[in-house]
Amino acid sequence: MKYISIQEAIKKGKGKVSIRGWVYRERGSNKLKFITLRDSTNIIQCVLERTNFEKTWEEIDSTKIETSMELHGTIKKDERAPTGYEIQVTDYRVVGTSDNFPIGKDFSTGFLSDNRHLWLRSRKMVAIMKIRSTVFGALHEYFRGLDYHEFQSPIIIPGGAEEGPTLFEIKYYKDVAFLCQTWQLYAEAAMFGLEKIYTISPSFRAEKSSTSRHLCEYWHAEMEVAWTDLPELMDLAEGMVKLCFKRVLEKNQLELEILKRDPKVLEPVIKKPFPRVTYTKVLEDLKKKKMKVEWGKDLRTLEEEKFMDGKDVPAFVTNYPKEEMAFYKPRDPKDKKTALCFDLLGPEKMGEIIGGSVRDENIEELKASLKAAGEDVDNYKYYLDTRKYGSVPHAGFGMGVERIVRWICGLETIKDAIAFPRTMDRFKP
């Protein structure tokens, strides 16, 4: 018979089926062997009776977790089985034997991290990776649906776009170069030709942080668009997030169930508008909550969480202090001590999900900001050139994909939102 997935077998519900996968659980007695088989779609209980397999019973009885098998039999409904169905096995084949699988219940985070290459087989990690895949698909769908062009920029760059200390320095033949923090500076150059562009690519930040929110290597969804102001940019960011949530709720109900993530917690993100509030108003709100923050200081995690407490959808915070912002964020003409920028803060203590801004078009302002940040202006000559030849209003944003995956999945740490996390404490396996 043709092999079908376990989920397809469950959907069929009765009759003869042929499936294949790996042993997820096994138990039994002298007469019966219960094997729960898993594949990428689901798990199912399979029963082998000794009377049908007398000659190979020793092999069946010694089957270990993660043994790969092909099974043939008859599927029927059984409420006692883990997924409500059971297969009475009539024939089988061991494809690959397994040693004693080192991962079981109640292992430490460190042990699971050391054995990440095996932990990826767990139902939890499989569910997260499927949701992650849905999010990536939704991002491509969103931008391509708006006629954006996918554009790739260099990973090896001569200088940074954010704070200098967060750059990974590498040897580049006889020179020193860096791993990119963002595609933005190159994207702005391409934007003058393509107008509407996006990317999903790795970015690198050498932040000395071991929090549940930071990775040194992460996947960055970024966009850049001509003829756009800050309100329109926030509209685009909101639409992108809503589509990611919509597609996950459509495609990943089983995975949310495995992760014990209530879909009702996610639904408001699709249904409700995201509030928009200035940095100054946030400080006023925090003051009412007995948390005083001096104007001009960036919001810390504690303050972001306090502001978002009780909210069920993200909130845009705009007009942060200009002096605290990256060099390319321009002053707001209506309030020159602030910049035309936003952070999208997530509920459930998720912190910043997206950061975006209008881009400064004034060459002298850009030079002054670069010098104030201690940067070598010569490293940005190509960037400054883009302002000399018909500059136009433009803007863009970036989102760490792992942050939205963590939020959707309700994960304690961002390290579980990527297959092989890279942090200041870990770069292997």
Describe the structure.
Helix 5 crosses helix 7 (230-251), helix 5 packs across helix 14 (401-409) and helix 7 (230-251) packs antiparallel against helix 9. The model has no long low-confidence stretch (mean pLDDT 95). The chain has helices at residues 6-12, 57-61, 109-114, 116-119, 123-145, 184-194, 230-251, 253-258, 263-271, 279-288, 301-308, 363-372, 381-385, 401-409, and strands at 15-28, 32-38, 43-49, 68-77, 85-96, 149-150, 156-157, 169-172, 175-179, 196-204, 217-226, 276-278, 315-318, 331-332, 335-339, 341-346, 351-358, 394-400. The two termini are 39 Å apart. With 429 residues, the chain is of the alpha+beta class. Helix content is 31%, strand content 27%. It folds into two domains: 6-96, OB fold (Dihydrolipoamide Acetyltransferase, E2P) (Beta Barrel); 116-417, BirA Bifunctional Protein, domain 2. The strands form four sheets. Strands 6-10-11-18-17-16-13-12 form an eight-stranded mixed sheet. Strands 1-2-3-5-4 form a five-stranded mixed β-barrel. A hairpin with a 7-residue loop joins strand 4 and strand 5.
Compact description:
This protein has 429 residues and is an alpha+beta fold. The protein contains 14 helices and 18 strands.
Largest sheet: 8 strands, mixed
- Biggest sheet: strand arrangement: 6-10-11-18-17-16-13-12
Strand content: 25-35%
Number of strands: 18
CATH superfamily of the largest domain: Bira Bifunctional Protein, Domain 2
CATH class identity of the largest domain: Alpha Beta
Would you identify the CATH architecture of the largest domain?
A: 2-Layer Sandwich
